[in-house]
């Protein structure tokens, strides 16, 4: 109803929609046929899982303003819960165990979100570390979670939905893509509703939110729950579609930091930022190793790669926090604006006529 | 709305009346105690009554036995020098502070500590001295959020956009558009609140407080820090608000000139005590006020910054 009165908003929507349509067409129509197994298996599938995890954390940290350092714990909860549902409940469709795993992660997230009712900022961040260490410890300590396999390693069952098995690089990629697209759409709907406004109200001014009547307790726990649900689903993708053999040690603090860095680099409180940040974090090490090998040859081994990767990412985070706290996506938007304006001029004219 | 829907079989002539009844019911639902209390026996029962409110911070007395009664539909100013306890008083009324002694009566309910989370449901809204907008939300969304306490649909319903969620969203959006038009904010309604000029942000905060049509509106220094032109404009908006919506308004202010013209009654605080309470003329000629607050009376000076 506002498109006519506000051509700016309408125009941006059109450009956005167009971009999303192009992306989805490429993702479903071109990449599965044109992409190599390496691209699908080692680049795109982990990218999708990380993008979804970052989206989940962004809901909590970027939108609702509650810092969390325990994302990897919720990835692990999702992965191990799905494994156990699949193992222990016979004939349970995989989609059901996927959603159930998300719900388990949400429940654990709400539990570890309880301190947020009293703590904020740095203190809350430290308390979410408890989730990180507790979950990793519990999964290693209690053999039941991994069906008594040594050091808690689990092997992923095949991804089968309605009789179709998503095997091979293409199948796992398509499965991940679909899960990510649906989850993202639901997250966007949530953010556009009053709940999304409540998240931002909570982040921007807790006292004012309380006075107005935003239910603080419920909103905070909901943010933890929804965020952990999405991160849990991402954990299932990470474990079942990407790695296919995981152990609790893989969901360590480094992983949690990695997801936090994705949203800081990509852009806090931006869904596109989470996706862009995940793409950056997956592609950047590959580019760096190619570049390093080309420039320095044999000296640039894996040790040097990892070191230089950390240095560059660390420098980038500091640089971004100072120069553009809204992340890479804000830079991209600024660069794209003049181009979009040129493209959208005929579009807006056609809507007026 | 639901009242209108269930009376679908009634004659069309009645529809209007029903709609009005529904409106009244909805308003009463927002502030049931205040609305009922205002009608008791026809006598003007105060919307807000403070009974012996005392508050101290670590031995320093902020408020000392304050009594105050605010009648339905009046604009009541609370003035006083810096540190007189004006903001503390507002924080007690909105439940952000718990008084050491005394009771706050909102309509027919009495509280030793006003429950802040129920404040909006009690029909009370407030603004803050140093702007408390949600900077990352557009103006329209800030205002819509002022309606949040009336919403019942849970998050699943909101994601799925069930009829209930859609109806609530439409209601709060319509109410917000109304109040945005009333305060002349149409031109900026899609802009982020954080990027607007200070005076406009003040108006947005007023809109957010007004959207749910509160019975009682508390304004903490609504005119501080804006230009003279904006000051007159905001003062006009405040008195229009009372005239259009019948809102009872309690405002804290430094600016004596504007307050004198705007308020029906003025209470004066000094060192946490109420030293005067009356019409602007009474307060102006009160010797205690002149001594404590105005100092030497300056004839013809409209603005006095303390």
UniProtKB/TrEMBL annotation, chain A:
The keyword Membrane applies. GO terms for molecular function: branched-chain amino acid transmembrane transporter activity. The chain crosses the membrane at residues 12-31, 43-60, 67-86, 92-114, 121-139, 159-188, 221-243, 255-271, 278-299, 311-332. One of its GO terms (cellular component) is plasma membrane. It is found in: Cell membrane. CDD domains: TM_PBP1_LivM_like. It is a multi-pass membrane protein. Keywords: Cell membrane, Membrane, Transmembrane, Transmembrane helix. This is Branched-chain amino acid ABC transporter permease. It comes from Bradyrhizobium forestalis. The lineage of its organism: Bacteria, Pseudomonadati, Pseudomonadota, Alphaproteobacteria, Hyphomicrobiales.
UniProtKB/TrEMBL annotation, chain B:
InterPro entries: AAA+_ATPase, ABC_AA/LPS_Transport, ABC_transporter-like_ATP-bd, BCA_ABC_TP_C, P-loop_NTPase. GO terms for molecular function: ATP binding; ATP hydrolysis activity. Involved in beta-(1-->2)glucan export. Transmembrane domains (TMD) form a pore in the inner membrane and the ATP-binding domain (NBD) is responsible for energy generation. This is ABC transporter ATP-binding protein. SMART domains: AAA (SM00382). Keywords: ATP-binding, Nucleotide-binding, Transport. GO terms for cellular component: plasma membrane. Gene3D superfamilies: P-loop containing nucleotide triphosphate hydrolases. Residues 48-296 form the ABC transporter domain. It comes from Bradyrhizobium forestalis.
């Amino acid at each position: 109803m506002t498109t006519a009165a506000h051509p700016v908003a309408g125009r941006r929507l059109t450009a956005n929609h167009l971009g999303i349509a192009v992306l989805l067409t490429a993702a479903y129509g071109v990449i599965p046929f044109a992409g190599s197994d390496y691209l699908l298996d080692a680049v795109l599938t982990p990218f999708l899982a990380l993008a979804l995890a970052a989206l989940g954390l962004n809901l909590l940290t970027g939108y609702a303003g509650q810092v969390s350092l325990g994302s990897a714990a919720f990835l692990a909860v999702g992965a191990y819960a799905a494994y156990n549902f699949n193992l222990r409940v016979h004939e349970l469709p995989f989609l059901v165990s996927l959603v159930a795993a998300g719900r388990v992660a949400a429940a654990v997230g709400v539990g570890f979100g309880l301190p947020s009712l009293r703590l904020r900022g740095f203190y809350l961040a430290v308390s979410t570390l408890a989730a990180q260490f507790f979950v990793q410890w519990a999964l290693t300590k209690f053999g039941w979670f991994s069906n008594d396999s040594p050091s808690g390693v689990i092997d992923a069952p095949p991804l089968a939905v309605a009789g179709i098995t998503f095997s091979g690089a293409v199948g796992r990629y398509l499965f991940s893509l679909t899960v990510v697209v649906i989850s993202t759409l639901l997250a966007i709907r949530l953010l556009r509703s009053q709940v999304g406004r409540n998240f931002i109200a909570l982040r921007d001014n807790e006292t004012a939110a309380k006075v107005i009547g935003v239910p603080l307790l419920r909103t905070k726990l909901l943010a933890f729950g929804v965020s952990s649900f999405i991160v849990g689903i991402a954990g299932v993708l990470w474990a079942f579609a990407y790695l296919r053999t995981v152990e609790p040690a893989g969901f360590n603090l480094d992983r949690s930091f990695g997801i936090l860095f994705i949203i800081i680099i990509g852009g806090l409180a931006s869904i596109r930022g989470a996706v862009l940040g995940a793409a950056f974090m997956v592609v950047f090490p590959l580019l760096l190793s190619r570049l390093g090998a080309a420039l320095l040859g044999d000296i640039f081994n894996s040790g040097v790669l990892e070191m230089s990767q950390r240095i560059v990412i660390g420098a980038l985070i500091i640089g971004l926090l100072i120069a553009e706290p809204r992340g890479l996506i804000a830079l991209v938007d600024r660069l794209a604006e003049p181009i979009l304006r040129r493209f959208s001029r005929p579009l807006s004219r056609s809507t007026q006529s | 709305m639901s009242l209108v829907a269930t009376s679908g079989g009634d004659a069309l002539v009645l529809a209007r009346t029903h709609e009005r009844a529904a409106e009244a019911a909805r308003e009463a639902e927002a502030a049931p105690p205040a609305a009922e209390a205002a009608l008791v026996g026809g006598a003007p029962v105060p919307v807000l009554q403070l009974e012996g409110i005392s508050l101290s911070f670590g031995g320093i007395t902020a408020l000392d036995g304050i009594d105050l009664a605010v009648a339905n539909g009046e604009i009541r100013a609370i003035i006083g020098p810096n540190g007189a306890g004006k903001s503390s008083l507002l924080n007690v009324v909105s439940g952000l502070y718990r008084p050491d002694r005394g009771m706050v009566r909102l309509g027919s309910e009495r509280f030793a500590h006003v429950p802040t989370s129920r404040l909006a449901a009690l029909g009370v809204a407030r603004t803050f001295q140093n702007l408390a907008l949600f900077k990352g939300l557009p103006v329209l969304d800030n205002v819509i959020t002022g309606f949040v306490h009336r919403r019942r649909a849970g998050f699943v319903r909101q994601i799925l956009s069930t009829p209930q969620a859609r109806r609530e969203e439409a209601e709060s959006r319509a109410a917000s558009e109304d109040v945005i038009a009333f305060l002349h904010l149409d031109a900026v309604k899609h802009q982020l609140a954080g990027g607007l000029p200070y005076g406009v942000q003040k108006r947005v905060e007023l809109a957010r407080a007004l959207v749910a049509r509160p019975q009682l509106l508390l304004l903490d220094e609504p005119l501080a820090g804006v230009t003279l032109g904006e000051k007159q404009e905001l003062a006009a908006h405040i008195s229009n608000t009372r005239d259009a919506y019948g809102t009872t308004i309690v405002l804290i202010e430094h600016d004596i000139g504007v307050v004198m013209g705007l308020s029906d009654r003025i209470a004066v605080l000094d060192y946490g005590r109420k030293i005067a309470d009356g019409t602007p003329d009474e307060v102006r000629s009160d010797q205690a006020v002149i001594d404590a607050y105005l100092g030497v009376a300056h004839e013809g000076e409209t603005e006095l910054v303390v």
